[in-house]
Amino acid sequence: MAKKHKHEEHVNHERWLVSFADMMTLLFALFVVLYALGQADLTKMKQLKDSVQFAFHISGEGKTKDEGIFDKQKGGGETLMPAPLINAQDGAMKEFLRDTLPREFEEVTGQSLDVVQTDDTITMKAPLSAFFESARPFPIKPDVFNWLVKAAQGSITFTSDIRIIIEAPDVILGAGPDGRPVTSLELCDRRLWTLRKAMLGLPEIRPHLVRLELGQQQEATPGSSRASADWEDRGQVILAFSNQRQQNR
User: Fold this and answer.
1) S-S: 184 plus which of 34, 50, 128, 171, CB 3.0-4.6 Å?
2) Same domain, 52 and 149
3) Residues 206, 196: Cα–Cα separation, whole Å
4) Over 80: is that where the pLDDT of 236 sits?
5) 34-38, 79-83, 206-210: least confidently modelled range
6) Which letter does DSSP use for residue 207 in this model?
7) Same domain, 186 and 99
8) What is the pLDDT of residue 18?
9) Which helix (DSSP H) or strand (DSSP E) does residue 174 occupy?
10) What's the pLDDT score for residue 186?
């Protein structure tokens, strides 16, 4: 019986086309990516830069109080520059705290809100009469309570210290059950605790973040009657949202 001859396998000289096609696909993808990067939206790039910078700043995760990793200036050695604590959120936060909140406060109370912003503190001042009904230690007026909650929630991303201050003249309001004179400062002390309770109603705000201060204003006219009828309009509620506590640095 004749032996069958094994035919040699035909060599495929076109296998290089597979590798060539893969290479061309990868090059096409590379040029598409390069083209996309070349058409960058500068506004969005700035937003991305600000977001990344803030993430590594004091209000982000894992950073110290005084500087972020981007807050360095090179030249003649590396020099650390002070980090802007509040101004790190110079966009939406600044608009919210300086523009939106004052406008909304005026809409619900008919009174103006004085806002002062520094590198580490935002202070808001308003008449005492805007927060409470006359001669009552609680509750906070409903519209103002809602505004207060919104203000506190808007400050959560940067604040590590909330100071609630009431400044009012020392006015005799009448006699208590024991016959002892009741003063406006005693009433304001109770109002401070009402404001504190409102703040602590937010789960994001811990008790150690809130401090209360009571200050006495000078009489409008020396020698005038201490039973002044407009003392609540002259008195002020001051809310100071800051990031100054030494243990958080």
Assistant:
1) 171
2) no
3) 11
4) yes
5) 79-83
6) G
7) yes
8) 83
9) strand 172-175
10) 93
- pLDDT for the residue numbered 198: 92
Task: Please tell me the distance from the alpha carbon of residue 114 to that of residue 122, in angstroms, as a whole number.
Answer: 10
Q: Are residues 219 and 97 in the same domain?
A: yes
The count of structural domains within the chain is: 2
Nearest C-alpha neighbor of 199 from the set 187, 212, 189: 212
Q: Among 80, 108, 126, where does a domain finish?
A: 80
Is 198 a domain residue?
yes
Say whether both 172 and 204 belong to one domain. yes
Residue 170: strand, helix, or coil: coil
Find how far residue 47's CA is from the centre of its chain: 17
Q: Running DSSP on this structure, what letter comes out for residue 158?
A: T
Residues 100 and 123 in one domain: yes
Cα separations in angstroms, 161 against 53, 121, 132, 244: 22, 9, 24, 7
For 164, the domain range is 87-248
Tokens 């002020």 — which residue?
236
Residues 64 and 128 in one domain: no
User: b/e string for 50-68 if b means 16 or more Cβ within 10 A?
Assistant: beeebebbbbbeebebebb
Calculate what percentage of the chain has a pLDDT beyond 90. 24
